[in-house]
Specification:
The protein has about 675 residues and is α/β, with parallel strands linked by helices. The chain has a domain at about 590-685. Helix content is about 25%, strand content about 20%. The strands form six sheets. The protein has an eight-stranded parallel β-barrel, surrounded by five helices. It has a four-stranded antiparallel sheet with strand order 11-14-13-12, with no helix packed on it.
Length: about 675
């Protein structure tokens, strides 16, 4: 058989992209032979995450690079750099850019200390300072084999693209500046985020622009004996996809970052899933529809990444898909009562903090999660939907996922539930997302590291692991309840009161009075109930969709019965199901819903809350408990009236440090003054 040599297709940049079509068909035949020759290549899934400069200011800098575990992703896209019509490129925040990418400024450096330089204007003349570079994003990511790209453009900085790409000179200058950015900062590639080309002229110029950048990066790579990547953000709206020449760009780009988010949001008057995996209608507004559109025009599967939003979109007034929302004004129907500090589009860490006071549902048709309260509903991705979208990428043989954005799921104790759900699925491809085993493994918060990588990728080393029915079972009754437990953080408290913690020998310390050992504080945690039966005494329950049990208002009628069914496994390995054996949820007449600043205070039952936390005064929570006749503790949560007991409370502050003064309650509706956020912090009562 004649040997076929595969090399990059070279095209005349002065030709219009439409003239390239004739050459592409003959080139496609050669490329198909190249693909066959490369058929043994293992396609590995990569996880890219956007990192925005705003993270430098949010929550007192909690998501600064030194608090990020870069082993959980394969690449960071630093977003973003801005541009002008002449082709200039520079940063968007001179203060944050330098201290994020290079680390904090070293104000007392030795005389011979090396300076790090960054671009603050279009003149291509950098400003330079000495930084603690080991704490910077670039050095931190590179130290664990994670690559870093510079993203140029974005939703706030895309306007100059059309004029810049229309002229040969400005395209050339822009491509040259891309090289300067890489050389100056130490980036590994360029990510172009033009949102979005609007017509055939933009489409042609975009192809020319990306082709020129590709040639410049290839030349730099040959000079440096290195490889520099080129990726681009691609639209998913059906009316925008035709304005991108995806068939040609497949020859130019290393990856297509599909913006498979915000299909629906509060700019519409009816509730919809913000990032549905599948679409209930024929409007082709889903992740799957977007992927299919690019595959249909010839984009390589292994180059496609789908976006995973680590934030939600809210709607005021509505509670289910298709319901009418209550609009604040034309074009804004967001729930700014519940999500005031997020402008109606909350990060996952804020959604997570309020879940105990919301009702959560999962839509199996769209693969989307909804959480609703008195003021409205938020559509978002939780651990289960992130797992299912990752599973979709695996099943479709796609290139990976695009996280929007890094830090969006970072909790106070630095755990990352959504990142962990994604990685857990990548490392255990056969593990069902609906299984108890998946959630059990996720709660372990296993450290997923990619050691020994030649290329910074996620090695799915456990993808062929056999999963048995036993993996899906706890060794006793699967029951959970909310308890006040001590811990160094929310995740630590939850772990200590779980079966996993017991198996590891961790000791749970309950804090019904709010008192904990030194260094620990009291958290309301979702805990496992100590089993009273062995595995031989209980039925094998069918795998059901995971949802976090939430406290709700007192039912007005007797709850419906819940049926326990069995899995299809050999009879000698399971207890047979009795069709008359039904589990029934019963409410103890001695139990009541009561307000209090802590559990002990609420036991006096001085303030009932049958409808949830909304019935409670500011700074108090709603508890399900048995009333006692003891005199109530002081109801004030003011820090000036202190009993020496520390509990977790929601307080307002422009930073977490300010919230730690415990001087201003968020209130039962979680509202804070403009410029302040609501934080869960330890306070004395």
């Amino acid at each position: 058989m004649k040997e076929i040599k595969c090399k990059k297709l070279s095209l005349d940049q002065q030709q219009h992209p439409s003239q390239w079509r004739r050459a592409l068909f003959s080139a496609a035949m050669a490329l198909s032979h190249c693909a066959l020759a490369d058929q043994t290549r293992q396609i590995r899934i990569r996880a890219t995450a956007y990192y925005h400069p705003a993270k430098y200011y949010e929550r007192g800098g909690l998501a600064k690079p030194e608090n990020i575990d870069f082993t959980k992703i394969s690449r960071v896209n630093y977003a973003s750099f801005q541009l002008d019509e002449s082709g200039g490129i520079w940063g968007t925040d001179a203060n944050a850019d330098a201290q994020i990418l290079y680390g904090p400024i070293n104000w007392n450096p030795p005389p011979d200390a090396a300076k790090s330089c960054y671009f603050t204007s279009a003149d291509d003349v950098p400003a330079c300072q000495v930084h603690d570079i080991e704490k910077g994003l670039i050095r931190s990511a590179h130290s664990v084999g994670t690559r870093v790209y510079a993203t140029i453009g974005g939703s706030d900085f895309s306007e100059p693209f059309s004029a810049m790409a229309a002229a040969t000179a400005s395209r050339e200058e822009f491509a040259k500046r891309c090289v300067h950015i890489i050389q100056n900062y130490g980036f590994d590639g360029i990510d172009i985020d033009w949102r979005f080309p609007k017509d055939p002229i933009d489409m042609a110029n975009y192809s020319l622009l990306l082709s020129q950048i590709r040639d410049k990066l290839d030349a730099l790579g040959e000079e440096q004996s290195n490889t520099y990547g080129l990726t681009a953000t691609m639209p998913c709206m059906p009316d925008q996809i035709p304005n991108v020449d995806a068939f040609f760009l497949d020859l130019i780009l290393d990856e297509f970052n599909l913006l498979s988010v915000d299909f629906h949001g509060p700019w519409e008057t009816k509730v919809g899933a913000s990032a549905p995996l599948y679409d209930k209608s024929d409007k082709h507004m889903s992740v799957d529809s977007c992927v299919s559109a690019y595959l249909d025009v010839g984009v390589s599967r292994e180059k496609i990444k789908i976006a995973l939003p680590f934030y939600g979109q809210s709607f005021a007034g509505g509670f289910a898909i298709g319901q009418q929302a209550k609009c604040n004004w034309a074009g804004d129907c967001s729930d700014t009562v519940t999500w005031q500090q997020d402008g109606g589009a909350p990060n996952y860490y804020n959604i997570y903090s309020k879940l105990p006071n919301l009702n959560v549902t999962f839509d199996n048709e769209t693969i989307a999660t909804f959480a609703f309260g008195d003021a409205g509903v938020v559509s978002y991705d939780d651990e289960r939907s992130i797992c299912l979208k990752t599973e979709y990428v695996i099943q479709q043989d796609l290139g990976g996922v695009l996280i929007m954005e890094l830090g969006g799921d970072l909790l106070g104790e630095l755990s990352t539930p959504l990142l962990d759900a994604m990685n857990l699925k990548l490392l255990n491809r056969n593990l069902p997302c609906d299984s108890n085993a998946f959630m059990e493994s996720l709660l372990r918060q296993e450290h997923i590291a990619h050691e020994g990588r030649d290329d910074p990728i996620i090695d799915n080393a456990l993808e062929d692991k056999e999963v048995s029915a036993a993996d899906f079972l706890y060794t006793g009754e699967v029951k959970q309840e909310y308890r006040y437990t001590c811990g160094f953080g929310e995740g630590d408290a939850r772990r200590k009161c779980s079966r996993l913690g017991w198996q590891e020998g961790l000791e749970e310390t309950e804090c019904t009075t709010g008192q904990c050992p030194d260094g620990q504080i009291c958290f309301l945690s979702l805990c496992d109930v100590v089993p009273t039966k062995t595995i031989q005494d209980v039925l094998l329950e069918s795998l059901t969709p995971f949802s976090k049990p939430l406290p709700k208002g007192k039912p007005k009628r007797k709850p419906p019965k819940m049926t326990i069914t069995t899995m299809s496994i050999p009879l000698d390995e399971a207890v047979q199901d009795d069709p008359d054996d039904k589990a029934e949820l019963l409410l103890d007449d001695k139990m009541s819903f009561s307000c209090g600043v802590n559990f002990e205070h609420a036991e006096s039952c001085g303030q009932p809350c049958p409808n949830g936390i909304g019935d409670c005064p500011a700074g108090q929570f709603c508890f399900w408990l048995e009333c006692k006749n003891a005199a109530p503790a002081p109801a004030s949560s003011d820090a000036s009236v202190s009993s020496g007991v520390t509990v977790s409370q929601y307080k307002c502050g422009s930073t977490r440090d300010e919230a730690l003064t415990c001087s201003e309650d968020c209130g039962s509706s979680w509202q804070c003054p403009e410029g302040k956020d609501c934080y869960l912090v330890p306070c004395s009562i």
